[in-house]
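User: Please run a holo structure prediction.
Assistant: Happy to. Please share the sequence and the ligand.
User: Here you go; the ligand is zinc ion.
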Amino acid sequence: MLKIWSMKQKQQQAENAAAGGSKKKKITAAQLRVQKDLSELALGSTMRTDFPDPDDILNFILTIDPDEGMYVGGRFSFSFAINQNFPHDPPKVKCREKIYHPNIDLEGNVCLNILREDWKPVLNLNAVIVGLQFLFLEPNAADPLNKDAAEDLKTNRESFKRNVRASMAGGQVRKERFDKVTK
Amino acid sequence: MGTRPIHNDGKEHLKRIVTRPGPFTSSAAALGLETLETLERLKVLVIGAGGLGCELLKNLALSGFKDIHVIDMDIIDVSNLNRQFLFRHADVGKPKCDVAAKFVERRVPGVKITPYYGKIQDKDENYYMQFNVIICGLDSIEARRWINATVVGMVDENNPDSYKPLIDGGTEGFKGQAKVVLPTMTSCLECQLDMHAPRVQVPLCTLATVPRQPEHCIEWAHIIAWEEERKGDMLDTDDPDHISWLYRRALNRAQEFNISGVTYSLTQGVVKNIIPAIASTNAIVAASCCNEALKIATACNPCLGNLEDEEANTYMMYTGDDGIYTFTFRHEKKDDCPVCGTLAKELNVNETNTLAEFLEDLAARPETQIKKPTIRTNDKSLYYPSPPSLEEQTRPNLLKRLTDLVEDGEEMAVTDSDGSITFKFKLVFSSK
Ligand SMILES: [Zn+2]
């Protein structure tokens, strides 16, 4: 047997069992990583987080109040669900309101590269929230998830802007009614 | 393969290996016939009785190990029979570990294999403490991370037997790896997390707007259509009705975009992320793992992660899809690894202390000196100075007594304000 594992194991094993191998729950690697990520989070004045259960840091809500761009005046919230495979798996992020946005579909799915194809374990939660914030500054017609909105943005920026205002106020765009997100 | 028992117990061949030093054998290794007895006395745990597990059990039994335990939570499916060679058609529906254990015991007289049908998480440290070597043949990263954290967490610096060598085998199609973890001394599975390439993902907008491949249509049905049309229904990838539904939706979409190739079995493969298992990859990786176990058990040759050599390799990878190639290298331990970077240290605290007093104490102690720490246990967020909402929610804990928040001996993690250092502690309460 390898040197450090002496042959005296039997006695010591007994001692060790007596000393109490604990069944107490250990902090998981995912929890540790999220804890680290949360302490590095730079929310600024336009974002806040809410934890429905403060003991569960793997599930929370991020609220963004854009202060520039076409979505100014709105308040948008995203649910973050992080599993025990984090950071191997990216967080699952969904928009909680039904909004008119080229990169967010009517179900709240978000097309953001680092949430799927470009996710890497070295990325952190801050990178994700910066990416989400950017979606409101620069909606991107090249990666459409809501095809109609992307088409509008591409063909007529002014009418797209009007649609954004109307949808944010809880109005209809192309016969689809959106959630009121103005403050 | 028949079921004729093996009469030659293999000892003659084994004796040649474990009684005669090779050119690289450590001078500290005392090889002799006692080595063989040690080998027979050691307790080995195999985790997983699937493709790798079948190979491992057979190899270990034929290599002279006599006390083998195996854990697996699966039952035998007809699709396993092509490579999981310890199972027969009549075994379909039975627990893998039970059938595998009986088969190997029957073929290799004198070997005792103890199966446990269930999850690794069912067992605690007392169970894992009884083994001398633990070998994983798992297909899930989550399970690997769990056993890795458990084995590393068991390390008690005052008890040499609490260091359990962990051998991890993994295969993905034609690729495979075998690694040895000597807890806290060589890189652990958590340190190696970035070695597992995340599954290749197609951008969501491609799925939604410009699918090009049958897989795109299936992923669309899986991620988008299911949620739109069956809101509230939990998708069960083992439910044939659910897979059929996805298959039909994917097929419609494929026709819409003139894409061919969507089939039921492809749907199942994409949704369950099935990577075809290759019998020869399993055999190669399991052979390497078993070799490592034999070297660790007998010291007849240096194992991966050999402690006498600071530069020793720890990680063997095999690439069979581009010729036949193995590459072995040293994966360096990460100082900031959340699992093996810091071990939970015992910390004596007065049982009358509040959390606030404890935090002041942490800032003052020379070995910690953490100001504004973030602190939690598995169940509870004790105090988070940021983000603001969490600070507000955890602030009331500051005035509570530690004994009301944390159990004696429970693990807690303390992170400093910029997230750069994390300590783990186990609190020991005292009355003064
Ligand atoms: Zn590690």
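The two ends of chain B are 68 Å apart (CA to CA).
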